Known about the structure:
Oligomer: homodimer
Bound molecules: magnesium ion
Distance between the termini of chain A: 31 Å
Helix content of chain A: 10-25%
CATH architecture of chain A: Alpha-Beta Complex
Amino acid sequence: xxxxxxxxxxxxxxxxxxxxxxxxxxxxxxxxxLNSARPxxxxxxxxxxxxxxxxxxxPVIRPRxxxxxxxxxxxxxxxxxxxxxxxxxxxxxxxxxxxYALSIDMTARNVQNEAxxxxxxxxxxxxxxxxxxxxxIIQKSAIPDPHxxxxxxxxxxxxxxxxxxxxxxxxxxxILGDISRVMTLEPGDIVLTGTPKGVGPVVxxxxxRAGIRVNGKELEDAKIEVK
Amino acid sequence: xxxxxxxxxxxxxxxxxxxxxxxxxxxxxxxxxLNSARPxxxxxxxxxxxxxxxxxxxPVIRPRxxxxxxxxxxxxxxxxxxxxxxxxxxxxxxxxxxxYALSIDMTARNVQNEAxxxxxxxxxxxxxxxxxxxxxIIQKSAIPDPHxxxxxxxxxxxxxxxxxxxxxxxxxxxILGDISRVMTLEPGDIVLTGTPKGVGPVVxxxxxRAGIRVNGKELEDAKIEVK
Lengths: 227, 227
Ligand SMILES: [Mg+2]
Ligand SMILES: [Mg+2]
Ligand SMILES: [Mg+2]
């Protein structure tokens, strides 16, 4: 039996989230590095909750023949139902957030490129088991302004991604506005806000570390270390 | 608080399913009618559980500017965890099913066509609220052979879809094999098995009725009636 309680985010509850909704192409330099078109509106896709890897749960599994890429992203964990949010409603957007987490949107890049070429869904490229490593829950108060924190990711201690969330093309009210005009967001749902530049491949044996700095100070709960 | 119990499918539990996984292009004549390519392997996508519309829950909402299409599909409701199922394992596949339902995979066809052209995800086209009307739970014993039942859908009493599940290109073991090699299926998860030919538009005011016949006999629990 699973019990999921509104307003109580625990690591165990993460895997019982109703859905994980992810924004694509939300940082200009990342769009450039993948030769993608800049979207006029945020677009988004779903990852299955079965892809979530909670801290200490073990390695990301690279399926055979897969070009596996990391994408570090700030995750929002909702505490309220959100429907038709006004994209200018900063207060409403922030009020709907219960807590945060750091996440790595692992992507089978070759499968995704093939899907794009053929006009097929992205669900396979984004949805393998273990393709969503997450940090511990970050208390909301630890991030006073989610539009002004630094996300970083290293591979084998080399910094690969390191940018401020100021660089988001669509801010959180716009993201939640656009999603919630299509699908109602429910308490416990997880929203990934896009990745800055610097994505790249990892192979078995590599160690990814990711984290968040707020005013230059590292958040302990945001740390991810995963092979 | 939501309580979800393994092995107990109720209408209320449907909306708490971990995920809804849908097979695309699984009937040859439907592939032809959409001018799509025939897949070598089953491909699939996710619908959010927030799109589920349980019986009597009310009309399908057509978002403004959307070309709304119906796709009647047999839904499997899983009773077991499934991982790496062998695609030849008919017994294993059928054993993993706890019950069935009929479903209508509502699709924003113009949004989907645009997504295909641009290589974008299908999640918006498939994921609006109310885009997954479902029937009551169908007891497993009511469908002795899921590969030999008739699915039908009428719009304003005109038959639009009416075909046997014998016409599936990929049968249930192949479908569950392919999905479960990517993502673990969990008890309560819902799998849509594709739509036969005859998809088309509906507009507000239209009445869709759908059902299943087993050996020519209508299953009461499979009936969907929705505006
Ligand atoms: Mg991403
Ligand atoms: Mg889900
Ligand atoms: Mg379909």
